[in-house]
């Protein structure tokens, strides 16, 4: 026992019999050698998140927590070295744990302290989030908020400042806050994260909405509103929905496609009616379909082939008119036909059927008719004379005109009169149709295209038509 401990014991036993409590106290030297306990050792590292999925070009920050031999855990802010198992797929800053995705694939992100390691799985997917299809141009939104465009550029519809067709995607400006995009015949509309609306391309009928009829080769801001949440583009007319549920339209109006009850073109966005429950709007070449929060569809514009789904004697309908009382979950408008999925998953079509684009027997239809017997449809797209749809299992189906391979079935068949399955893949996520070209996104973020390619609208670097899906980039 050391001297200090003896003195403490002596103090504690004052008043006790002489010598009580003093056993073990020596004459001035320690007779016990006490070794302090060893500090706990690091036995494991837990990396968070343990699994993450990000698109190419974006980052993910990882953190590490150390587990010690005494059962304790502590965040490891210093002394950790980070590394990647495959720097081709993703790199990581050694001192911070910030990983940057470089290519599609899976990689381990590893944290190391001395000889102890921990790891997490990082899956990198392709960068595409949305795609829009014009007559002969495509526009895509990437996960980093950038916009890319390709194909015909005669009117500046690509927005890169030139009038040169592009065979592969080119970056549009420097903005990284785009959230939505739509493409018309030769014009493009897009919304930024601040709610502003932008437009570029052909403007003969005021479809850009900037108050002029001048074409624009770069994005121009439309008005001062910061409340835009959705846009749609027809051949030469445009529509948008604002946060308060109001519907707006501008551009060509010869067939009543703007819905204001008139036939004069509008050069700036103009509110249609006073309703504030509009939720979705799509545009065909010369007709418009919109859904309210109730799930009801309203139609207006050209009805020459019955594409509005009601009997107007072939005459245009110039104000929004309710289509039956059914509730719908998806709708697409082609050049002169319409597709819609009812809330129970049944697919309907109506309008022009010259190339089998309705997927039903017979000629054009004035009223909606069911396509097949499936109740598993979840998404639709309509081109000039071809149609596409997705089922719940992620499979892709197509029908109608196939003269330019726009169905993607790999055959030389000129048309399909009923839906045919396209390949075996079950990971299709989004579909869009141009005049005779088709675009689709898969769940891994890859972008695919097929069909007519005379202006480079497939984005594959050449002018060769494709009859099967080909990956862009």
TrEMBL record:
In terms of Pfam families, this protein maps to: Big_2, RCC1, RCC1_2, WD40_RLD
Entry's SMART domains? BID_2
Gene Ontology, cellular component aspect = cytoplasm
Q: Where does the source fall among the domains of life?
A: Bacteria
Q: Sorted alphabetically, which InterPro entries does this protein's record hold?
A: Big_2, Invasin/intimin_cell_adhesion, Ran_GTPase-activating, RCC1-like_dom, RCC1/BLIP-II, Reg_chr_condens
Annotated Gene3D superfamilies: 2.60.40.1080, Regulator of chromosome condensation 1/beta-lactamase-inhibitor protein II (2.130.10.30)
Q: Which residues form the BIG2 domain?
A: 41-123
Q: Which UniProt keywords apply?
A: Guanine-nucleotide releasing factor, Repeat
Question: What is the name attached to this protein's record?
Answer: Regulator of chromosome condensation (RCC1) repeat protein
A single Gene Ontology MF term assigned here is: guanyl-nucleotide exchange factor activity
